[in-house]
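Example (one chain per record):
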Amino acid sequence: MSENKDPHVAENGVEGVKFVYDFTEGNKDLKDLLGGKGANLAEMTNLGLPVPPGFTITTEACKVYLDSGEEPAALRDEVSAHLSALEDRMGKKLGQPDNPLLVSVRSGAKFSMPGMMDTVLNIGLSDKSVQGLAKQAGDERFAWDSYRRLIQMFGKTVLGVDGDLFEDALEAAKEAKQVAVDTELDAADLKKLVTKFKKIVKAEAGRDFPQDPREQMDLAIKAVFDSWNGDRAKLYRRQERIPHDLGTAVNVCSMVFGNLGPDSGTGVAFTRDPASGHQGVYGDYLQNAQGEDVVAGIRNTVPLAELEQIDKKSYDQLMQIMETLENHYKDLCDIEFTIERGQLWMLQTRVGKRTAGAAFRIATQLVDQGLIDEAEALQRVTGAQLAQLMFPRFDEQAKVEQVGRGIAASPGAAVGKAVFDSYTAVKWSRSGEKVILVRRETNPDDLDGMIAAEGILTSRGGKTSHAAVVARGMGKTCVCGAEELEVDTKRRRMTVPGGHVVEEGDLISIDGSSGKVYLGEVPVVPSPVVEYFEGRMHAGADDADELVEAVHRIMAFADRKRRLRVRANADNAEDALRARRFGAQGIGLCRTEHMFLGDRRELVERLILADTQDEREESLKELLPLQKQDFVELFEAMDGLPVTIRLLDPPLHEFLPDITELSVRVALAESRQEPHENELRLLQAVHRLHEQNPMLGLRGVRLGLVIPGLFTMQVRAIAEAAAERKAAKGDPRAEIMIPLVGTVQELEIVREEADQVIAEVEAATGTRLKLAIGTMIELPRAALTAGQIAEAAEFFSFGTNDLTQTVWGFSRDDVEASFFTAYLEKGIFGVSPFETIDKDGVGSLVQAAAKAGRATRPDLKLGVCGEHGGDPESVHFFHEVGLDYVSCSPFRIPVARLEAGRAASQSEGSDHR
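Predicted structure:
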């Protein structure tokens, strides 16, 4: 190595790359490089907290491995150098027979992912070093327990052996000894179990369990890299929209032991309750155990508060460390710790996952404590969490049959058919069934089923078990540790107190807020958050719900920050009033075709099929007063706020008789020699107008141009309704929107006719009307010629549903049911483009059209009225490209308001940086 080269630079052809960092070298801001776990271990080390020494292999090393299929050439030497330094510090050698150093190997991506490789503890143990560990600890049972754990973890996570084989062997050993828990097995029992485990490895993996400690460590490191592309990890990344190219870090940490007897143990702690957000002592502790025992839910834990009686010195130290970490991270912290014979060790900390309710409470608490400001509080909550809080909950007055109670791990009211494995949960869910996944405890293999289920119920584990942590992260209802329920996954049944048996397919209900489990379907009632938005519960009142108060404050922060206005998609006065209560600042889309369903459909049918001008005018004459009254009611409900009315835009087939039914009627009439002249005439007209692809056919502006008088009737109804409201001292603010425009000439023709009608109404009523006329941008050609179209439009509203269909060439009604599932599973989509806007394709057209439109008309108002208007990620995009408002369904308005505030807050933060 040349003298001017950094000694840390790896000689692997990747210039300037260092692949291994000691815990003393990193910090919490290096998550991209060291992963979340490694960065936080380094941060705790820098804070002077008791962290066992170790080192982190960076995500860069993983990326090289994933790209080339081989580890970087210099990685082995770097690992050897750091391992040697660790051995010097600890005064032991990895796996040496007389005084072995043992290490753990753990994955650690930037984002916590349940699908990643499980931890492997006790690496360095072998047939020889287990004797040295027993002598070193003065405890033979402990040494053999540690060894059987290594073989079990290594076999499952590194060699791919079915974990149930080890569990079955462990259960058999306990049954043979007639004991309930593994801590009652003695050293002789564990020696036999080690022998059995090694035979399982040999039979299933086709090789002996490795006795070379360095081979154990190297294979474990490689397994972590490989787990990045495991099916569960890829599924979780798609679900959470985590990029696939980040890679994972690997943490190698010197072992500390919680299974050395009653003065040792392991636990997980939260600085606040992750379910409610309340301050206090929250977590689980397990004496004489190693860390994975807690999160796996294999043994039932005791509440963390009991540690004060078990080991007050360690408890007091832990409380001080928890306070230090929360003040340092300015957030709820999730902590893993081990006590080894009275010595406390910190194994991990991270900003903890929390329920939606806890997120809102904690954000406002931290503002009150002066740890964060309002802008930061907005970044601590999400629109998805707010949407969860608006879900219904169980009716407390309902007659219920409670059969159990566990730990309230993740709130919500979930009802579904009991299923006992992940495969069935996915299968039934895809068939439209709502299911509850019932397990003794979950593990990463259950991720598919957890995603598919309405909720998760386990008979083992606590608030820090796998089921609880994953459910909270996904916003799924979860009840854990319902010990009185006997879950038999092999027989697909659950026995509840009293002997009643719940078979697979039976309905059950679980309450993730109380932990209660009920037989059958329990009725649900509205969320208090919805009642708040509807004005039936008032924040600040003496009896106000604490959660409602937190939501009220966060929404106030968002409304003060946001630039985007939020309107509603509403087609009648009832929806408009509800939207207004939810905070809508107008209507961004009134779909007039929805006003013609039901009894009025026949009038539109007659209009479309009319042969003569007289027939057409007669239909229009009947429709006009009905339309006018619709608009009067809408303007009254939204008085003083803009109401954007889209002229008729149905696919033609929605207003025509069904061609098959009509053909049958005609055929039957002919066979019976009954009169059928009208039906035959109707059938001929329907055949004439029949379209192979109605979504791309005679609809929108095309229909208005082909059927004279249709659009002018609607414009007249809008104008007369506005004049009537003005005469009643109202403040109608109507905007007329022309749908499916592809060229400026279409808009010019319709606009000219509309202006003439408005002038006629003004003259007849003596009322000055200000009716803006604009268009939807929902075709690629409209977006590409937006500069021309803006010459005739006072506003654009992006119809991103149709724009997505026409950009992608998708028929939404068909593709979502046919191949979208496969596209999502294969990672072609991270999320459906109908759910979150495709920024690269559809989004680029929106951005280009907005820019071109404003270049022509600087005061052009820009909005969006597709379903993307209520999608959190899409709202941020619309803020970035400079739209004026988003419009969404009434129940999504609070979500859009919150995300608009978060988008503005993030933009300010970026500008300041």
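Caption: The longest helix spans residues 613-637.
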